Structure formats: C-alpha cells, structure tokens
Amino acid sequence: MNAKKMFLGLLDTIVKVVFIIFVAMLIVKYAKVAYDYGYHIFNQTAVSSGTGRTVSVTVKDGDTSKEIGEKLFGVGLITDKTLFKLQEMFSEYHGMEKAGTYELSTTMTPEEMLAVMSGGEKSGETSAKEASVEETSEEETSEATEENSEDVNGG
Question: Acidic residues: which segments have biased composition (predicted)?
Fold first, then answer.
C-alpha cells in the first residue's frame, strides 16, 4: 500500500512537471510570434528592393483591410495578410482607403501602399518631395559653409 501511494505521488509530480514544461514551451513559442509581429508592424519592409515590379490593384468601395490585404498578398505585394491588417490598424491611414485602381510596386512598404490608397500621396510624388528637400538642404549647407569661411578669413 505504501509503495502504491509513493508511485501515485511520483506519477502526480511527473505529470505536473511535464504540464509546466509544456505551458512554458507554449509561452516561449507564442512570445516569439508576438514579438515578430510587433517588430514588423513598426519596422516595415518592402517585398523587394531595387526596381521591383509594378502591379495594378483595384480597391472596391467598402473593402476591409482584410480584403485589401488578401488582394495585395495575391499579387505578391505583401508577405503576410494578417501582418498587413495589423499594420493598417496601427497606421495613420486606418480606415481611409478609397475605392479605385492603384499602381503599387513591390519596392513600396505597406505604409507607402496605404498612403497611396488613401489618397495621401501618389506613387511618384514622394521622390519629388524628397528631391526638393535634398536640394534645399544642399543649398543651405553651401551657404552656411560660405558664411563660416568668411568669418574664419576675417570677413
């Protein structure tokens, strides 16, 4: 009788330890998944770099972010439908997507695609804005350099 109680006590302890290990493994696994999603929500990357390829995507009136994500995934513009839905939810363009046909590229991040689909900017406008900012910065830098050289030379 004493041996039977000891065996059942040992079996009970083993089951508890196995259960705790199993729960710990699940926590670690899903913590990694949660971290990965959280990281990629705010650190968005494009599907490809370089020239990429341009794809036409039609968004219908009333399409949800899930449906838009499925369309983008289907044509290879994003790598994860669920991640796109989360990125849209946390972006400044949440719920602002407009119906229409858009030219999107594999070199665009999900945030850039959302900006185009919400009417915030067109595909080519970003580079023009950036170019004007760079030109202004270069002019300001050269003017500041000239002023500094005059000050140093006693001007």
Answer: 133-155
